Amino acid sequence: MHVFVTGGSGLTGPTVVAELIEAGHTVTGLARSAAAATRLESLGATPHRGSLDDLDSLSRGAEAADGVLHMAFGGDFADPDDMMRRDRTAIETLGRAVEGSGKPFVSTSGTLVMPAGRKSTEQDEPDTAGIAAFRIAGERACLDFADRGVRASVVRLAPTVHGPRDHGFIGMLVDTARKTGKSAYVGDGGNRWPAVHRLDAAVLFRLALEEAPAGSVLHGAAENVRFRSIAETIARGLDLPAVSLTPEEAATHYASPFMAIVYGFDAPVSSTFTQDLLGWSPRHPSLLDDVVRGDYF
After folding, report:
1. 194 close to 268: Cβ distance less than 8 angstroms
2. Degrees, nearest 5: CA angle 61-64-70
3. Which of 74, 20, 68 lies closest to 43 in space, CA to CA?
4. How far apart are CA 218 and CA 182, in angstroms?
5. In 10 A of CB 246, how many CB atoms?
6. In this model, does residue 74 exceed pLDDT 80?
7. In terms of DSSP H, where are the helices of 47-197?
8. What is d(CA 185, CA 242) in angstroms, rounded to the nearest whole number?
9. What is the pLDDT of residue 72?
């Protein structure tokens, strides 16, 4: 299969591109810069110059492919409405390019769209008032194409996709601990944090492209980890104290009040349906193992 990929030169994207090529697929990747094009070429993919805002480029890339994988997501988190509009517009453009073709179209969202306080399944409705509600419009835009002759599906990734050179939420936690001299959690730290190894996430994206039925919602999460366990593991790695913060203290401790809310969010999910549907079986190191044995420190 010839796959057109957006976000292939990002943090998780290169591992996904490598997985697709290893499985015998060919990849064309959207590249908005010379550096991104070079990264894609180094993986064995063909660069396609453009950006999420270059809708003509998106259409051409999707029309020329046998399947589409949309992972790119950008913008200013201070303006979530703008991020939502950009993502939805890009998804609608990609979907129209393959409408009526029966081709696979996999779009990316996040498990943080799900309601807080209970373990959510793939069949549960996302929380339209939640902290990641700005991702829901993109999900719906993609899934709408399932009724328009596209094998459309959505992969909701865990907030932490960990592995070498992880500069996401856990990397930011480590940096904050170094700067403040303490590794913190909010309240009792009992909130549950979904995570998945990058290599396992890459396999899931490949399986979604190859096999996911139209209209599928998939959860890319291998485990749910108590946040206090994450903070305590970081504390041991840096030889710092692990401390509890009130929500008010967390708002100034972390990079922003929004990040304090995210780090205190209880958002466990199940991926049992996803694993059963696609035969996906996460097998790479857990988050805490990666923090201990990886390159976070």
Report:
1. yes
2. 45
3. 20
4. 36
5. 12
6. no
7. 55-63, 80-97, 136-144, 169-180
8. 8
9. 95
Place of tokens 């995210």: 262
Query: 35-63, pLDDT tens digit by residue?
Result: 999 999 999 999 999 999 999 999 999 99
What pLDDT sits at residue 78?
73
Specify the fold of 165-193+223-268+285-293: UDP-galactose 4-epimerase; domain 1 (3.90.25)
From 5, 16, 26, 43, select the one nearest 198 (Cα to Cα): 16
Given pLDDT bands bounded at 50, 70 and 90, which one contains residue 225? very high
C-alpha to C-alpha distance for 152 and 68, rounded to whole angstroms? 9
* Topology at the third CATH level for domain 2-160+195-220: Rossmann fold (3.40.50)
Joined together, the tokens standing for residue 179 give 């700067």
pLDDT grade for 6, boundaries at 50, 70 and 90: very high
Q: For residue 288, what pLDDT band results from cuts at 50, 70 and 90?
A: very high
pTM: 0.96
Contacts of 252 (CB under 8 A, 6+ apart): none
Residue 113 corresponds to which tokens in the numbers above?
């769209």
The pLDDT of residue 81: 87
Domain ranges of the chain: 2-160+195-220, 165-193+223-268+285-293
What's the token pair of residue 81?
Answer: 């409405």
Question: Which stretch of DSSP H or E encloses residue 36?
Answer: helix 34-43
Rounded to whole angstroms, the Cα distance separating 103 from 116 reads 34
pLDDT band at 3 (very low <50, low <70, confident <90, very high): very high
Pairing of β 192-197 and β 223-226: antiparallel
User: Which tokens go with 51?
Assistant: 């950006």
